[in-house]
Amino acid sequence: MEKGNKRVIRGWVMYDWANSVYNLVISSAIFPIYYNSITTSRFLEEKGWDSLPDGVDVTVDYFGVTISSTALMSFTMAASFLVVSILSPMLSGIADISGNKKSYMRFFNYVGVLSCVSLFWFKSVPIELGVMFTFFASIGFWNSLVFYNAYLPEIAEPKDHDRVSAKGYMMGYFGSMILLIICLGIIMFTGENGSNTAYSFILVGVWWLTFSQLTYRGLPKSDIVTEKVKGKIWKGFKELKTVMVEFGKTKRLKRYLFSFFFFNTGVQTVMIMAVYFADKEIAWPENDNGTGLIISILLIQILGALGAYLMSHLSKFIGNVKTLGISIFIWIGVCVGAYFVETPTEFYLLASTVGLVMGGVQAIARSTYSKFLPHNTTSTASYFSFYDATEKVGMVFGLLCFGLLQEVFGSIRFSVLSVAAFFIIGFILLFFIPRKESVKA
Question: 199-218 and 161-189 are packed helices; what angle lies between their axes, rounded to 10 degrees?
Fold first, then answer.
């Protein structure tokens, strides 16, 4: 595969544009509000109440078990992350052996698309089936990213990794913002009381499916096909074992991944729980109807693109690890500041800071890992499966800690403050990463 080919890089970048609508519309902005609305309506109907009394938690009957609606979604997402962390290392070895990264990427892409479209019927189907749609949408999205990220070291020279990675995140932020505005227009100006909200989920699927075709047209099928298809499952496991041994000898990569586990756990926990925190703890005006929250999400998207560009530019002068250190230090301040914010204005300032460091830390984290891979390795999918599994296990760990601390201390503010510990540990571990790697692939 020719590195630096502009057509290939454009195709690769377009997948960020295509898939980021899932992360914004389904994970962050519209579906969480829609989910709360549907489960609350069903709960009130079952109880025969007109409104929800103070202090009463909404519960659902899930396969005969009564459980909090919020806890059900948290456990569902945690379960999907666990499945991804198990599947991605296994499949990546097979993909590297058979030269089929694009096929696996496309398969999980389509699983995610179909699941997103299926959410259109969330209101009319049993809660068990509706939750399964969100489960498979998450698996499709995150597993497709394993194979997508694995292309980065193959399509760009190490000196361009930061720029190309940041460009992908920038495109993702802008693309998802455009679709979010379209969805908001449909919700606000058509139908009554958000009756057309569910059409947003179809739009996500169509957007993701349509623009991903530009990626598949631009990316070659594979880098190097090292084995025939026959026996590829067993050979895939052997490939993964070989990469694990090789990985253990690369001190710089291994230590970086330890640091990444902690600081990325902090990033992902804040990103997932930010909407719930803002909805509960910020004193929004009575007639706000979620508008202020949506404005803050759009603000984060715009500044996220700018942050990705600024951080990639800064890394040229001071290096990736120091750039990450600056981002993580700011994240620590964000967690501490979140404990004290109460007004919408204060939250907008905090959201602006989050936007700047969110895009930057994600883009630089991905490109740094890509730079630290052994030279001339053809097992990029297997290597990035470790990166992805580390990210997903961290997300499960972070969410469990967040929820547990909220239960113990009875305050979501304390949970947000405690997330600073993940950033502090990750920041300290950065100092133990060697500047150069002595082991070659």
Answer: 150
Cα 183 to Cα 199: distance, rounded to the nearest angstrom: 8
Domains delineated in the chain: 6-430 (1.20.1250.20)
The enclosing H or E element of 368 equals helix 344-372
Residues 416 and 130: beta-carbon distance below 8 Å: no
CA gap 282, 416 in Å, rounded? 14
Q: How many CB atoms lie within 10 A of CB 395?
A: 25
pTM for the whole structure: 0.77
For the chain, how far is it from start to end, CA to CA, in angstroms? 19
**What's the CA gap between 74 and 167, in Å, rounded?**
31
Q: For residue 56, what are its two tokens?
A: 């009463």
Which structure tokens are listed for 369?
């890992």
The letter for the amino acid at 120 is F
- Of the candidates 100, 107, 101, 98, the residue with the CA atom closest to the CA atom of residue 232: 98
User: Higher pLDDT residue, 76 or 131?
Assistant: 131
Asked if residues 141 and 23 have their Cβ atoms less than 8 Å apart, the reply is: yes
Provide the token pair at 396.
Answer: 């499960």
Contact 310, 356 (CB under 8 A): yes
d(CA 122, CA 136): 14
The position carrying tokens 């929800």 is 52
Report pLDDT digits (tens) over 165-221.
888 888 888 898 899 889 888 887 776 556 788 999 999 999 999 999 999 998 876
Contact between 96 and 380 (Cβ < 8 Å): yes
In this structure, are residues 129 and 156 in contact, taking their beta carbons and an 8 Å threshold?
no
Bridge-based pairing of strands 65-68 and 59-62 is antiparallel
3 state SS of 58 = coil
Q: How far apart are CA 250 and CA 438, in angstroms?
A: 8
At 392, is the secondary structure helix, strand, or coil?
A: helix
Is residue 199 a contact partner of residue 119, using CB atoms and an 8 Å limit? no
Euclidean distance between CA atoms 366 and 148, whole angstroms: 11
Paired with 62 in beta bridges are: 65
